[in-house]
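Inputs:
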Amino acid sequence: MTSTLPSQPTDADLAVNARPSDRGRFGRYGGQYVPETLMPALAELELAAAKAWKDPAFTAELNRLLRSYVGRETPLYEAERLTAHYRRADGGPRIWLKREDLNHTGAHKINNALGQALLALRMGKKRIIAETGAGQHGVATATVCARFGLDCVVYMGAEDMRRQALNVFRMRLLGATVQPVTAGTATLKDATSEAIRDWVTNVETTHYILGSVAGPHPYPMLVRDFHAVIGEEAKRQCQDSFGRLPDVLVACVGGGSNAMGLFHPFVQDKGVRLIGVEAAGDGVETGRHAATITEGRVGVLHGAMSLLLQDGDGQVQEAHSISAGLDYPGVGPEHSYLREIGRAEYGAVTDAQALTALQLVSQLEGIIPALETAHAFAWLEQLCPTLSDGTEVVLNCSGRGDKDVNAVAERLGNELGA
Amino acid sequence: MTPSAVSAADSPSPIAARFAGLQEQGRMALMPFLMAGDPDLSTTSDVLLSLQENGADMVELGIPYSDPLADGPVIQASAYRALSAGTTPGRVLEMLSGLKGKLTIPVILFTYSNPLLNRGAEEFFADAAAAGVCGLVVPDLPLEEAERLSPSAQAHGLDLVLLVAPTTPADRMQRIASASRGFTYLVSVTGVTGERVSLENRVSSLVADLKGCCPIPVAVGFGISGPDQVKQVKSWGADGAIVGSALVKRIAATEPISAAAQAGEFCRQLRQAAD
């Protein structure tokens, strides 16, 4: 675990204008560690986003498409059998699921892909690039590019293409080019580096739809703001369902976009516990994991200062997780900040715990969650016994598991179709 | 000004002095780049001396990094080989310390932000200066982030060299050139490192713009593949030419034992083109 004990965050720490500062910093985290070639494009993007949010035509178009194309709002669903499963003699928490898995393309990722595609159109950029790990962001980006007639190139690690063959096919069906990346570990980290290299080369014609709350400023803020609709809806739905704010929010964290989207509208509500769940892979003690906040040190990757899995010389280490979407050695800078100021808590669960949770939720609720999402569910095992009766827990059900069925079958030793 | 009146901060750095000397002779600086530790540090040491013998005015030495996002395939592969051979920043600096007295041309380290920040910028600067390093190029440290580090680098006698790209707007170019130390590194292509068949003609006007806005020397790099492009860069009025991937590729294509000779031969051709 990280050594420093978090203090109590002040109101100033939590203010929206401190997240990030005008220098693109969340405390010491964030910033813009990119080649000079990209700096004007980042400035252009920041300006375009600021103007767009103030333009009623933009927000109206975004909201119209979120409703009619993405299928928002997504339900806040009371998971009654899961709640019953964790119920003790003296009661227990009530578990609610924010059903982002019901979005078009099966995950929260499309909230951001749609918003950024609309921005690209406003900036007059007709070519889109993206990186993807599990393929969910790639599919979401390919989808919105098809919808708006934009050229789309998705960078994906060769190892992830093997693990997520179904999503590779979906992207190609949608008309995108999927560019395999064989460098390094051939996973999300390397796909992101390659996408940045493409952007450096084609920046004048291309917009990079970065898929997480990571990367150089303004991406951590931009991506969070497009996903904040998750938390905004949830806040309203909690009011409607049980007449108050929730007590605990739980979400999985790789780069951390679904978690930031849910957390953001609640950050200033200090009574709401925010819990992010990372991937412990084979176990943090084995060194084969992706638990960046739990085990990482401050560093710079893909344009931002944040916590990072790295060796003693600052070389970025391989991450390991059964979930391609969490298999990343970095994490969004705002998560590092929320951890540092003591506003959010982070834990980690292993591949095995995630697989157990995936089966449990499938069988109790008839919902097959994505492997990424299964990490958040797995945290309930240790969280629920500590919560008093009547505690309201909202878990971000960030994606559906159809894409993972092959990988899960392989791991559980079942032959599909046998 | 009498010598006694010149404070340490005012005296020209070794890099600035070298550029000044070359400018007096009407010559352009030749600055080869190579990756430390590819294939091993003892070969790197031999190649450095060979480059010096064959007309290099300064040398840019890469610290290998796991995620080099400003680099094209040639230098990525080189960094990967160097890391696989166990190269670390500490060992690179040890190798340089061992060359003191023999390698007299200025050495500029090319390192990404993370290995630098991981060691702690202060400590990195102190160790680099102790090993005889004169300057640093950090390709993922733009003006805004560099401004925090430059004074501390300078306090250790290191020039923090900043980069200008073809996409940099004019007012920003002015601010970068004013903040850069030693020289301004003009990235000649919109893209990552690697040889290009031809250089964009707009680089010519960028050289002129940079020279017009600030007295600091301008060196052009990224994409220069051989003597012809060195000549072209010279004709644009640049003060220096940086040749990376083309040299790295030649070193990789030969046996370690003949790497120094090969690099020296290529450097001699570049030198002729530069003069």
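Chain B is about 50% helix and 15% strand. Flag for discussion at group meeting.
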